[in-house]
Amino acid sequence: MIFKKLSHKVLSILFSASVIISGFLIFFRTYPDNFISTSLDAVLYSFLKSTSWIRNSFSDFINEIRVSREAKEEIEKLRSQISDLQSQLADYHEVKRENARLSEFCDIKKESPDMEFTSASVIGKLSNKNIFIDVGKRDGISKNDAVITREGFLGRVSRVGPFSSNVTTILSPDIKVGGIDTVTGNPGMIAGSSDFSDQNLTRMTLIKYKDSVNSSDILTTSGYSGLYPKNLKIGTVESIQYDENSSSYVATVKPFCNVEDAKNVYVITNFASKNLIDY
User: Fold this and answer.
1) pTM
2) CATH T-level assignment (fold) for domain 116-270
């Protein structure tokens, strides 16, 4: 609106100047040899030159404003399109993650049809021995429920809140899980150690004989306890040492589940042999 008013004023001035100039031109034609007319011709020339420059500059200025306004509108339109595309991309990634969770859930359910699961996400970590998940009592979670990933046993629920829970992982000294060597069939106790947790390692204790377990053997949950189902994958044996304090052998175990990388987990809320006498 401001530019329209400005344009009208400039045009009025130019129109008035044109009328005056026309008068001068008539005068010059009538008195061509007049000294005054010659002088005025020089002034008129300068005036016309200046007026032409002002008119052209003003026209360029108006064009720049119009182009600038159009460019601003185009930039805003592009920003809006970018925002929409970013939202669509975020939705796409969320759908992709959800599909991956559902695929994992279906695979685990096929392997263990007698188990009931609740899927969850890791939302925080105190350390690799204690993590938080986004399900709680309202989701049917109970203390000591086993927590797994697609790779294997992760830990157990140690505290349950209304909306979230703490999970003590397989790397913690606070966890005790009955394990069994799938090759030899010999049992032991999976118990974490602060000395090994930073290396993502745990231990199998209470091994009576050195040959009861061997390097590279796969360990699973024994199922002797009513807390955890049978045959949940735990890890592989890396080495075996004699422990003088317990007068038994101890195996260093590499868990299948990497606690540091855990994002999607599954809480086993029920299974066929739940609540039997502990190991």
Assistant:
1) 0.61
2) Thrombin, subunit H (2.40.10)
